[in-house]
Design a protein that fits this description.
Gyrase A, domain 2; 4-stranded antiparallel β-sheet; alpha+beta
């Protein structure tokens, strides 16, 4: 049997191992360099794409801002419309409903009482008219002051506060009683109905 005889000097073997180590470390370094270049290229491309997206988004935002600025007149019109709406809403909710007042006077009037003239001020009504008798005039006054009057609007049962009979005269030619009364009422009760 032949045995392997190594005739290469020990220094040469060490030199070959150093060369192999340098060669393998160079290959590994080149691989790491290529990997680092690949990662750098990926990050560069991704960053460039993100920058482009940011610029495009900034341009879109600027376009939207300019559109919003160009439509500022719509905002002003909307605010003015809102103010007008709120003004009308408060006006309608706080206005007195005199039609309900007149209806309530008509409901409480006896059938033989005829109203000829009715003058309304805030908190006061002046009524002049004719009646078949003094009793009807008294009944009209009592009906206006009656808080439990049937047939009237239940929300307005305490509307009338005071009634003053200024005059009541019997007219012989027409066989009627001419009267003039002043009725005080709560104007606030006519609001918000």
């Amino acid at each position: 049997m032949l045995s392997d005889v190594n005739l290469i000097p020990q220094e040469e073997i060490i030199e070959q191992k150093k060369t192999a180590a340098v060669k393998s470390s160079s290959i590994i370094s080149v691989l790491f360099l290529l990997l680092a270049l690949g990662i750098s290229a990926y990050f560069y491309v991704t960053t460039s794409k993100i920058d482009a997206d940011i610029k495009r988004t900034d341009n879109e935002i600027e376009n939207f801002r300019s559109k919003i600025k160009s439509m500022s007149y719509v905002e002003v019109a909307a605010r003015n419309l809102d103010k007008k709406y709120n003004s009308l809403k408060s006006l309608f909710s706080s206005r007195s409903k005199y039609s309900l007042l007149l209806k309530e006077v008509q409901v409480r009037k006896p059938s033989d009482v005829i109203i000829q003239n009715l003058d309304t001020k805030v908190g006061e009504i002046s009524i002049s008219g004719t009646s078949g008798s003094y009793v009807s005039v008294k009944s009209f006054i009592d009906n206006l002051l009656n808080k439990e009057f049937d047939g009237g609007d239940s929300r307005l049962k305490d509307l009338f506060v005071e009634v003053s009979l200024n005059s009541a005269n019997f007219d012989k030619s027409s066989n009627t009683v001419k009267f003039f009364i002043v009725v005080s009422y709560q104007d606030g009760r006519l609001q918000g109905l």
